[in-house]
Specification:
The complex is a heterodimer of chains A (426) and B (304). Chain A has 426 residues and is mainly alpha-helical. Chain A folds into 2 domains: 56 residues; 322 residues, ABC transporter involved in vitamin B12 uptake, BtuC (Orthogonal Bundle). Chain A is 67% helix and 2% strand. Chain A has 17 helices and 2 strands. Chain A has a two-stranded antiparallel ribbon with strand order 1-2. In chain A, a hairpin with a 5-residue loop joins strand 1 and strand 2. The radius of gyration of chain A is 25 Å and the shape is globular. Chain B has a single domain, classed as ABC transporter involved in vitamin B12 uptake, BtuC (Orthogonal Bundle). In chain B, the strands form 2 sheets. Chain B has a two-stranded antiparallel ribbon with strand order 1-4. In chain B, strands 2-3 form a two-stranded antiparallel sheet. Chain B has 11 helices and 4 strands; from the N terminus they run H-H-H-H-E-E-E-H-H-H-H-E-H-H-H. With 304 residues, chain B is mainly alpha-helical. Chain B starts with a helix and ends in a 14-residue tail after the last helix. Chain B is globular and about 65 Å long. Classes of the chains: A mainly alpha (426), B mainly alpha (304). Chains A and B meet through helix 1, strand 1, strand 2, helix 8 and helix 15 of A and helix 2, helix 3, helix 4, strand 1 and helix 9 of B.
Chain lengths: 426, 304
């Protein structure tokens, strides 16, 4: 009994202190809401009950934490969880099962226009995540402006279609190429910088692209964006009820009844195909010398230099390839939406894609799929979560970094091991 | 000429605000080598606490400006410092010694969290503040152009200079300053010599947040409107200022802030106001490429 009170009192004190700090923090921001008054001046709405509830929650949470961790401070755990290990060991089977499900999805009984739309969004984010994974997960370069390449891809297609009347299929490689070029142009001077400087420069670059898109009215349409972007065709056969002279629409080609669902399903498969191309590409390139060089560079740059790997060129290829997939995803986004504006390419979008990579576990392909599904579905499941989505999101990023700094499904097992030996990860 | 002087004055006032925020980045980077991405958000919270306290004092009927300003300054510094301390305690301390991108990603998460937190609690609309300090000096030259120095600009310059003097004294003369300088040179060695490293780092965050709170208060007075999104741009620009002056160097942060403020004022004055942020980001990229150690920074030696 004496021992119990011996622990209880300091813990209560600790939790009380935490609650006090929380109360001071919450008092002005949560407790007093500034609202416009009658004469245009601000007045305050008081919500002191929220402050009290908040402080109580912090008190209870802190006490629970102290008991659960038995007084130890929360420290990052180095060991990978059982689930994570299981998933990464049987990654291929999970991947194949996921792919089979993805292919079958439009024909499943619960599939509706809405489900397929959401699934398409998930697949786009998966593709963006895989693209960024090349840069962040494999090469270890923190890119906070990935959305810039997405924007370059989207605007490339929109502008080429608008001014030169090019179609989606001829624009796709051009958009990828332009995005990769943007990646090289940005990467060449800045890739010599240290990791965190690089992060800020890429963030700056992302903002520059967005500000140029907003202000360069003559070409980009400014904040209003570009509308009437041509929709994709089924290799030249449009998805319309009444096509232009001399064109065969998709439904006549296959002798089907016209349905607007055709285009939605087609877009979904298109996104899936693009994502699978990205996935295959990444899986294969990891086994090439360049892919191995990326991972080596992530672990130790000085050792790589000593082994004769040119860090700048190696990083540049990672940057350009990542940018290229961002460009592909961008032009798909443009053709799917039919309308793009700088609004879609803010820093938050970069942060979301980065969060998908980080939450999923840097370098893990399946982790990206899971994280993309969670992040896209979270606001869809409960629309009332909309406002709180980013709140949860920021908190999740912090917590996951504390608990599992390498991500949920991180596996850092070397892709190459001595014959017979299993790589014992850290 | 008058136009030039006007831009100069605006630029100096703006630069002082950037400089104050930049010191927070520079100090933290100097000691633990991480970019505290949430620092811009701390500045934004400083501005919000200021505007809330002003409104509260107005409702209580306190209208004598100097006293109101003093009270707001104290409250803003107190609450914002506590935010700085809490952020370090929750998001960065558990990650000390983790792999190098982890604290930066955690900081980005914290930044998103704080931004949304203020948006949810206070609403997304811009918050206007009735002018607290009005008037100033106006000079006219022969050609009819007038140059105005507002009281707020004078307040910004005087307050910043005072803070800089006090701050330099803290770093150079007090035990805390000595501990900070020791930590900056070598964390492990400082710990072995009996410096409480965790406490020193916490206090560094507290000081950085206090300076950011002053910057937030002055920006609120200067612009008269704030919203939950101001932290992002101000943060990136202040970081640019810190890098420009040489990250880790405190006089450098102030100098970098001034250079950036002047560059921005002259760019908006003589070229196009739409592209002023592009100009700031371009300066950042150019500085990092051609002058990675900044104006007053020491070159970094990489050890194996």
């Amino acid at each position: 009994m004496a021992a119990a009170t011996g622990v209880l009192v300091p813990r209560l004190k600790d939790a009380g202190l935490a609650a006090l700090v929380a109360a001071v923090l919450f008092l002005p921001i949560l407790g007093m809401e500034t609202v416009p008054g009658a004469d245009g001046r601000l007045t305050l709405d008081f919500h002191f009950h929220i402050v009290v509830i908040g402080a109580a929650v912090v008190f209870a949470g802190r006490l629970a934490m102290l008991y659960l961790s038995r007084g130890r401070a929360l420290r990052p755990s180095g060991r990978s969880g059982v689930v994570a290990e299981f998933v990464s060991r049987h990654g291929t089977w999970f991947g194949l099962a996921g792919l089979a499900f993805a292919i079958a999805l439009p024909f499943l009984p619960f599939a509706s226009r809405y489900t397929i739309d959401v699934a398409t969004t998930i697949v786009i984010y998966v593709m963006l995540g895989w693209g960024l994974n090349i840069v962040v997960g494999l090469a270890g370069l923190l890119d906070l402006g990935y959305v810039a390449f997405y924007a370059v891809g989207a605007y490339s297609y929109a502008l080429l279609a608008h001014w030169f009347g090019l179609g989606f299929w001829s624009c796709l490689p051009i958009a990828g190429l332009l995005a990769a070029t943007a990646g090289v142009l940005l990467g060449f001077p800045v890739l010599r910088l240290r990791g965190d400087y690089l992060a800020i420069v890429t963030l700056g670059f992302g903002e520059i692209i967005r500000l140029v898109l907003i202000n360069w009215h003559e070409v980009t349409g400014g904040p209003n964006g570009i509308a009437d972007i041509p929709r994709p065709t089924f290799f030249g056969f449009p998805f319309t009820r009444s096509p232009a002279e001399g064109e065969t629409p998709f439904h006549e080609l296959f002798g089907l009844e016209f349905s607007t669902l055709h285009r939605v399903v087609f877009l979904y498969y298109l996104a899936l195909a693009l994502a699978m191309v990205t996935n295959l590409f990444v899986l294969r390139i990891r086994k090439l010398p360049i892919g191995r060089a990326w991972e080596a560079l992530r672990e130790d740059e000085i050792a790589c230099k000593a082994l004769g790997i040119n860090p700048t060129n190696t990083k540049l290829t990672a940057f350009a390839l990542g940018a290229m997939f961002g460009g592909f995803a961008g032009s798909f986004f443009a053709t799917r939406q039919g309308f793009i504006s700088p609004e879609s390419f803010t820093f938050i979008e970069s942060a979301i894609i980065l969060a998908i990579v980080v939450l999923g576990g840097m370098g893990s392909q399946i982790g990206v799929v899971l994280a993309a599904a969670v992040i896209v579905l979270l606001p869809e499941v409960g629309r009332e979560f909309e406002t709180y989505r980013m709140l949860l999101f920021g908190a999740a990023m912090v917590l996951i970094m504390i608990w599992r700094p390498r991500g949920l499904l991180a596996h850092r097992e070397p892709t190459l091991t001595l014959a017979g030996a299993r790589g014992g990860g850290p | 000429m008058a136009y030039f002087i006007q831009q100069l004055i605006n630029g100096v006032a703006l630069g002082m605000v950037y400089g104050l925020i930049a010191i927070g980045y520079s100090m933290v980077y100097g000691i633990i080598g991480m970019i505290n991405f949430a620092h811009g958000e701390i500045y934004m919270i400083g501005a919000f606490v200021s505007i809330i306290t002003f409104t509260l004092l107005g409702m209580l009927g306190l209208s004598w400006a100097p006293l109101a300003l003093l009270l707001v300054l104290i409250v803003a510094i107190g609450v914002t410092s506590l935010y700085g301390w809490t952020v370090e305690r929750i998001a960065y301390r558990p990650l000390r010694g983790s792999f190098r991108l982890a604290p930066l990603i955690s900081a980005i998460g914290m930044s998103i969290f704080l931004q949304t937190y203020v948006q949810v609690a206070q609403g997304a609309k811009i918050k206007p503040l009735q002018p607290v300090v009005t008037g100033g000096f106006t000079f006219a030259d022969a050609s009819g152009f007038t140059v105005t120095i507002s009281w707020i600009q004078i307040l910004i310059v005087v307050l910043t200079l005072l803070l800089m003097v006090g701050f330099t004294w803290v770093i150079a003369r007090t035990p805390l300053g000595r501990a900070q300088r020791a930590c900056e040179q070598d964390l492990k060695m400082a710990a072995l010599c009996g410096v409480d490293v965790d406490r020193t780092i916490s206090l560094t965050f507290v000081i950085g947040a206090a300076l950011a709170a002053v910057a937030g208060l002055m920006a609120t007075l200067y612009y008269g409107v704030i919203d939950f999104f101001i932290g992002f741009l101000a943060g990136v620009k202040a970081f640019t200022a810190a890098v420009l002056g040489g990250i880790g160097s405190i006089p450098g942060a102030m100098l970098g802030g001034l250079v950036l403020g002047l560059a921005e004022a002259f760019w908006s004055g003589y070229f196009s106001i739409e592209y002023k942020d592009v100009a700031a980001f371009t300066i950042l990229v150019l500085v990092l490429i051609f002058l990675p150690t900044g104006i007053l920074g020491r070159p970094e030696v990489e050890k194996v």
